[in-house]
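Lesson 9: reading folded outputs for more than one chain in a single document. The general rule is that every protein is listed as its sequence immediately followed by its structure tokens, and records are never interleaved. Here is the first one.
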Amino acid sequence: MKNTLRLLGLVAMSASMTVSAQRYLTEVFPGVDVETNVQYGTNFQVLTGAPVSIPLVMDVYTPQNDTETARPLIVYLHTGSFLPRYVNQLATGDKTDSATVEMCKRFARKGYVVAAIAYRQGWNPASPEEEVRKETIIRAVYRALQDSKTAVRFFRKSIAEESNPYGINGTQVVIGGQGSGGYAALAYATLQDASEIQLLKFFNTTTNAFMVDPAILGDYSGLGGNPALNQDNHAGYSDDISMVFNIGGALGDSSWLEAGEVPICCVHGQLDPFAPYANGTVFVPGTSFAVVNVDGSSRVAEIANSFGNNDVWFNPPFTDPVTIKAQGDLAGSVNDGNEGLFPIEGPANSSGPWEWWDSTAVYAGCAALGIDSAGANIRLTNSYASNPVYAALGTVAGRARALAFIDTLQAFITPRMYRALDLNVSIDETSVLAKGLEMFPNPMTNTTVISSTEAPIKNYVVYDNQGRIIRNGNVNATRFTFERDGLATGSYYMELFFKEGTLTRKLILD
């Protein structure tokens, strides 16, 4: 779309700490309002048998008691293998999944408006015919792409025709997805004409036709096609975006990526058995069938960087602890210098270590669909393939571990989104403001004085060398004294927030 680590140690920030810092970078709102099942369109779903017209719905998260009326919008796509939760033989697959809700709430507490959309699902993973599996899943990704564009147009239409009821800035829109939602998000960033979807790998030799025909299914924006298979929604409104983030998804084909497209931020397990980290074949949890060859996050980041699409994140470079982890401050192969890529190592973390679920809810949800307890157990077992440690730790410790990974996702994605949306930028180290910042003494014993000759310091956040937030506070002055107050000897990072942007300094405690 022209217009538009290996993890060397889990980077965990305290989930319970509310940071009094910069809006859109850290959580500044204590609560979130959620409007559930807002209808953003209507379209045809092919789940079983004939196409059925269904309402397209979403849950909209907004920061509680916020007075801002021009907020950036995030459209968020959940995981689930493009089949409904439990039907997909998994414990996840819905906009109300635990990890999806947590991600949306955290973004909203930072000041964003977040729309967790339910997109159309349906394909045939159990078919013994490879071309059937490939064709039906490619169409499922295509429909999810169309629905995400429908959602973006819905919000822009609401600005123009309904006096902007969600209080968004229509020029600042990000698409993000985890798992299968990441596939659709990457397609959103890159798929722009029929020739890209009509490649030889997507040609069905049995039917002698391309697996996706926009003249039948509608174009990549979800417009046109056969009216019995695709319904136009909010035509005439733009679906341009500013950035995409992908958590564990993959790109249908590397040729889709071109110079001039939006920045792409990726987090991915290096040993992911379902969505390849580099180039490889897609497998679906709960089945043993291969589906289609795709390009994972490593290749996506490599190509995007080679085209200069991620240049906005290079100048000035990020110096926060999470980025340093991604780049490799310890020995080993990490993201190979590809900005916007955070690789996660280890088979226990390979697919979805940020996922968790309540087994009681799984049994109840399955029962509502007529699935007995043995079937529910199968779905739980399949889900442990994505987060195997969860089964061993149990619900409480497993959830805490998953939340620690979500800390990392948020810490890596948020500053890149902040930069891509031009909300604020890191301050150039050659600037007068940076040169006017002093920290003395450093190393410090009990106290150090931080002073700025050029602009007031709004607030600060201190991280340890594992990326955990261990201290934060408001300043609103050109000078303040930082006290040790029991901190252990070692190296820390202090991020300082100004109206003009942020500066990070290493702080050493003797």
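And here is the second record, again sequence then tokens.
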Amino acid sequence: MIPKEILKKVRHIEIRTTRLVNDLFGGEYQSVFKGQGIEFADVREYVPGDDIRTIDWNVTARSQHPFVKKFVEERELTVLFVVDMSGSQYFGSGERLKAEVAAEITALLSFSAVKNNDKTGLVIVTDEVEKNIPVKKGKTHVLRVVREILYYKPKGRKTNLSKALEYLHNFLTRTAVIFLISDFMDQGYEKALKILSRRHDVIAIHLKDRREEDLPPIGLVEVEDCETGQSSLADFSRKSLRQMYQQEAVARNEKLDHLLKTLGIDRIDISAECSYVEPIMKFFKIRERRM
């Protein structure tokens, strides 16, 4: 039985994101995510001006009249949300955890996909692939996806993006748009990401929190690693400690930026304590201009 507070959150997310889709994102989504190409639809008689490369020679030979092939855009997309739900996603220095922001972003983009008659699916990952909800169409399916992110209790706390990316490469039978939602606090996934991005349109949504980059000078604090459960005392009043922490965060961010640029993967940076609307709108505008 799903708790009432979860259903209330789902309803709130539905209302908020549906309004955003109707007001802002519907047209932008369709303009930047095209169909998978063109597919054969029918044949018709040749008329002067038709491209001779579209002549169907088999039909032409049988009928003794020239016929050309008709094609239509294959509009329908497979849109997959791969959501990292390891321990670090359950951190937030503001009003929302990163996992809650992930649910809202997934809802926003899923409702945009539904409006354009695309299919959506969900893969929940930690250090294992924990859940795979097959792609389907419709609003009811989107609400199920959102409920799963909010209500699901992960078995693992650690992160293994490499295993998740290898799983996607093996099970996806057709080209997909993949939104990879994570804080990317992991190593050794570069090769798997490179292989996956060769066939699929991968967009990295980098969720972060300001306290993962900047420590407040508040003195002695007991801190816990969300993924290992290990705790220790740290003196945040030490300037050298805060600087080292910040430098590590900058280095981690630069490494991710270099990797994604090298692979040609679009990136959206979203802070859990800020609005996600502006970064996603910026992404749509940049991608639209590029296309």
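What the second record shows: The chain has a mean pLDDT of 88.
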